[in-house]
Amino acid sequence: MQVKYAIAVNGNQVAEHFGRCEGYEVVELGENGESGERSRLANPGHEPGLLPRMLHEAGVKCIIAGGMGPRAVALLDEYNIKAVTGVAGDVEDVIVQITSGELEAGEDLCEHT
Fold it and tell me: What are the φ/ψ torsions at residue 38 (nearest 5 degrees)?
């Protein structure tokens, strides 16, 4: 079974803030690390509730970002989307960490927390 992950990005780096990034790298990953479809969604703007709904409609089950505010986490929870924060670095490295089971949340980088 494949799971869709979204990574908040600025360029090829994990963005520090979920709602104020350039976009979201969406990647489908299987239990054994096999990768499926991959795409990038543009950030339509920082409006409460818009991004969680957009990610839900795209089939995302987990969002990864440097940080996000508590309201965003609560809205994502309503759509059963897991939020993993405190992640930094290159998007490709993060994808490897996901597939190897080594991705760990860190200290939230968002100033809203």
Answer: -140, 140
